[in-house]
């Protein structure tokens, strides 16, 4: 691996110097858009003397993007635009993101950087198994892999049998896939009587939705690959905002392109490194649609200490969920990822689960439907009952309440081609 300058402090300083320059440029550029012209009327780039001063600048929210849809954030004339994407709309009406040619170039470079970092080279054959179209995971990774020089297969989402045929026929080595789909695809391999480990696969890039370390390990084990966590959001171009390095201990944020803050979601002041808060991003290299202090609602923390790879870019921990994913049940705060962590660590549990919230009388209740691997789904009721109790007990230790556990057959829960729906609220 390339060795960087021995003194990490030197590189931190360089990154922060660059961030300050780019932040000021971004501020001036942003004011060309109708939205920021008004919002930042009283703020000038000269007022920003250090990165600390950013804390005096107002936030931008998803609602702002929705209210000023479609062109309210634009800083260039429309003839400069070459691409449109939109968020998946996981939490409401989608928002649109617009790109100039320079924006697409910057994005492809960042993506290529992520791929190169985890060991992808031009000799690799890359299959992109996420949705193309408005979703950024398709074209985003696509252009990055092409820029690196990989043979790039735009397989898109779904159609599992064809995916497997492509993997086999073209001796694919690198795959981009949503983790819940990677688990589902494993069941299709099984149905076809094929062993994923006998394929040529060596690297998976997994992201676009929250998942746990247990899920990653499961994917690595099933496919015999190294799986790297990939984080991004359409408002920040898409994937390629933060990515794991070969050490798999948190995701390096590409701080030359994105300025990251982690704030207490209530007081909106910075939390100490190591403490969980809401991620807030400012674009530092965006032309068409710069965004300033954009509140992602994603929860994570900055990891402390140096990364063994030598990069000075700060690392964020895996995303535990969005502030709006939190379930409050009987006064206890629960994140779906706590449930996933337990389930994916149990060998009897298959590749899918679903959390349902419902009312029993006046009481809120939680039901967890859990797919059980074929070999454990037997006729013997006593054994099933014991397994049910075991799962409920483990879940209780993690989430402090005892959910009702329902065991269901392997492959019987609804699956999506895109981001998994983990919680259904029937209340
Ligand atoms: P939407 O917000 O509608 O889902 P996007 O497609 O832009 O739209 O998705 C971005 C969001 O997806 C992020 O804000 C985050 O919540 C989630 N996400 C993306 N990558 C990851 C990841 N590696 N781990 C956890 N969550 C992720
Ligand atoms: Zn690293």
Summary tags:
4-stranded antiparallel beta sheet; Rossmann fold; globular; GMP Synthetase, Chain A, domain 3; binds zinc ion; 2 domains; 8-stranded mixed beta sheet; 20 strands; 10 helices; alpha/beta; single chain; about 425 residues; binds adenosine-5'-diphosphate; about 30% helix
In short:
By secondary structure, the chain is α/β, with parallel strands linked by helices. The protein has helices at residues 8-30, 34-39, 62-67, 101-117, 136-148, 160-169, 179-191, 213-223, 336-344, 381-399, and strands spanning 81-86, 96-100, 125-128, 151-153, 174-177, 203-207, 226-233, 238-244, 251-253, 258-263, 277-283, 294-300, 315-316, 321-322, 327-329, 332-334, 349-360, 363-372, 404-409, 423-425.
């Amino acid at each position: 691996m390339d060795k960087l300058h021995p003194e990490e402090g030197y590189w931190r300083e360089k990154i922060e110097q660059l961030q300050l320059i780019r932040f000021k440029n971004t501020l001036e550029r942003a004011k060309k858009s109708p939205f920021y012209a008004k919002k930042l009327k009283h703020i000038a780039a000269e007022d920003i003397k250090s990165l600390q001063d950013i804390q005096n600048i107002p936030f931008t929210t998803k609602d702002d993007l929705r209210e000023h849809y479609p062109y309210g954030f634009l800083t260039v004339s429309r003839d400069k635009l070459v691409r449109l994407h939109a968020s998946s709309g996981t939490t409401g009406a989608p928002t649109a993101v617009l790109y100039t040619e320079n924006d697409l170039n910057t994005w492809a470079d960042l993506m290529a950087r992520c791929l190169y970092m985890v060991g992808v080279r031009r000799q690799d054959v890359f299959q992109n198994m996420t949705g193309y179209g408005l979703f950024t995971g398709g074209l985003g990774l696509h252009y990055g892999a092409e820029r690196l020089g990989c043979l790039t297969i735009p397989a898109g989402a779904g159609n599992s049998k064809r995916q497997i045929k492509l993997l086999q026929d073209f001796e694919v080595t690198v795959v981009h896939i949503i983790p819940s789909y990677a688990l589902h695809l494993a069941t299709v391999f099984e149905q076809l009587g094929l062993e994923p480990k006998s394929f040529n696969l060596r690297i998976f890039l997994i992201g676009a939705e929250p998942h746990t370390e247990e899920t990653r390990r499961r994917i690595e084990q099933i496919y015999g690959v190294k799986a790297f966590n990939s984080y991004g959001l359409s408002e920040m171009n898409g994937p390629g905002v933060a990515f794991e390095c070969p050490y798999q201990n948190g995701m390096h944020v590409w701080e030359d392109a994105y300025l990251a803050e982690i704030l207490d979601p209530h007081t909106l002041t910075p939390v100490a490194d190591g403490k969980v808060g809401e991620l807030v991003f400012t674009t530092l290299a965006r032309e068409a649609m710069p965004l300033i202090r954009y509140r992602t609602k994603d929860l994570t923390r900055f990891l402390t200490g140096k990364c063994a790879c030598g990069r000075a870019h700060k690392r964020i921990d895996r995303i535990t969920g969005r502030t709006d994913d939190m379930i409050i049940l009987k006064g206890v705060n629960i994140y779906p990822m706590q449930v996933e962590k337990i389930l994916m660590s149990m060998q009897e549990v298959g590749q899918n689960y679903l959390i349902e919230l419902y009312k029993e009388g006046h009481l809120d209740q939680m039901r967890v439907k859990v797919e059980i691997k074929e070999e454990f789904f037997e006729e013997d009721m006593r054994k099933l009952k014991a397994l049910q109790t075991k799962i409920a007990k483990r879940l209780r230790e993690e989430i402090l309440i005892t959910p009702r556990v329902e065991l269901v057959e392997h492959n019987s829960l609804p699956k999506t081609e895109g981001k998994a729906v983990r919680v259904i609220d029937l209340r």
